[in-house]
Amino acid sequence: MAESWRVIAREQRDELGEGPLWSARHNAIFWVDILSKFVYRYSLADHSVQSWAMPERIGWVIERSNKPGFIAGLQSGFYELELEPFALRPIVDPEPEFPGNRLNDAKADRHGRIWAGTMDADIVETRGSLYCLRPDLSVRRVDEGYKVTNGPTFSLTQDAMYHTDTGLKTIYRFDLSPEGELSNKRVWLKFTDEMGNPDGMTVDSEGFIWIAHWDGARVSRWSPDAKLDREIRLPAPRITSMTFAGPELDRLFVTSAAKGLDRDKERYAGALFEVDAGGVRGLPPGSFAG
After folding, report:
1. What phi-psi label fits residue 216: left (phi over 0), alpha (psi between -120 and 50 degrees) or beta?
2. Is the pLDDT at 45 greater than 50, yes or no?
3. Going from the N-terminus, what domains does the chain have, and what CATH number goes with each?
4. 199 tagged catalytic
């Protein structure tokens, strides 16, 4: 692997690549380009990339445990999504009072609930919130007051959840009960200007938290007590998220964005990378139980 990374070969670059998801069911990585309104699938078997155009901005897809297809977060709320054949069915718009908001980032916990944040699509107003979509398809607001919601992930035992306000350079830690109640919100880590802004996150099999650095050109690995373990530099400034993948969960795939950058100067901006994680393995991604 050249340096500690390689670029997944494909013709185009993502305006705002996000939401990478490992699917053992498909032996593939799924991810989205939020602004260009696409869902992508990269096959680990034959290295092919397929794409599906979406009717509006899409922040993420999460697989369903007991049904085919996905739950997806779009501009106008939560949807059921099937790709082959294509079908898109609305579940709920959590914020009809804010048509300028959109869903931005999400993860499913081991109980099959989806935790997803909203944000002002124009990144002007501080009106983002954090929601929990339960397997019965009910949704509730659990926190609010965010500029740019990002990166929810969970501790190894899932008794804690990490959630980010990228606009404030701050990652929060909540206590998380088995019943899905959040409490004891506190600042877990605050980025310096040199670090960029914290974006997507994931937790590995040793309980360390991996963070993507928007305008920081790297991913980093942190202990649960917020001590930096390592950094992996990448040739794109705006790194957005990552997922461990493969049958052994020992391959790390990282998304990035070309939004706001000179593509002639930043030739790798918006690429999908595979990164050498130094022997670290990930955890199977959560799926939605509804």
Report:
1. alpha
2. yes
3. 5-275 (2.120.10.30)
4. yes
